[in-house]
UniProtKB/TrEMBL annotation:
PANTHER family: TRANSCRIPTIONAL REGULATOR YGIV-RELATED. InterPro entries: AraC_E-bd, GyrI-like, Reg_factor_effector_dom_sf, SmbC-like. SMART domains: AraC_E_bind. This is AraC family transcriptional regulator. The lineage of its organism: Bacteria, Pseudomonadati, Pseudomonadota, Betaproteobacteria, Burkholderiales. Residues 1-152 form the AraC effector-binding domain. SUPFAM superfamilies: Probable bacterial effector-binding domain.
Length: 153
């Protein structure tokens, strides 16, 4: 998998948490819960992020946590049900992704495996980054994102 090493800045985000099995249900969470919330609070047209908090290989499916996030300014007043967190600044391997929700898990597995084999993977928060003009092809379900994994200095 092709990737670039990039220094990414810290980002303040508002997020809503999904809990349950990864896969199609995460896409439904974005569509049915996160996107309507994002629209209601005037947060459309901003960079969004998906952050898996658990490794589905070691965490029971029902306990897996995933945060759907949107970038907000330092003075944006985050209100419940949203919560605040910061994605840490650092050195990341960033790989382009194009596919459907069903393809994301395999892409993550390939990317992690490659970085581990190269001895570059580091501990830290991994995330999907979606552009401010994010769109999914309604006919095919195909979308683009960047997969971001912390790497050693």
């Amino acid at each position: 998998m092709k990737y670039e090493i990039k220094e990414l800045p810290e980002v303040r985000v508002a997020y809503l948490r999904y809990k349950g099995p990864f896969g199609p249900a995460v896409g439904e969470f974005w569509k049915e819960v996160f996107t309507p919330w994002q629209k209601a609070f005037g947060l459309v047209g901003k960079v969004t992020y998906g952050v898996a908090q658990d490794d589905p290989r070691t965490t029971p499916a029902a306990e897996c946590r995933y945060d759907a996030c949107v970038e907000v300014s330092a003075d944006y007043p985050i209100q419940p049900p949203a919560k605040e967190t910061h994605l840490p600044a650092g050195r990341y391997a960033v790989a382009p992704f194009e596919g459907t929700g069903a393809d994301v898990s395999a892409a993550w597995g390939e990317f992690f495996g490659q970085l581990q084999a190269e001895g570059k993977a580091a501990e830290g928060v991994c995330f999907e980054r979606y552009p401010a003009d994010y769109a999914m092809d309604p006919a095919t379900g195909v979308f683009t994102a960047e997969l971001c994994i912390p790497v050693k200095a």
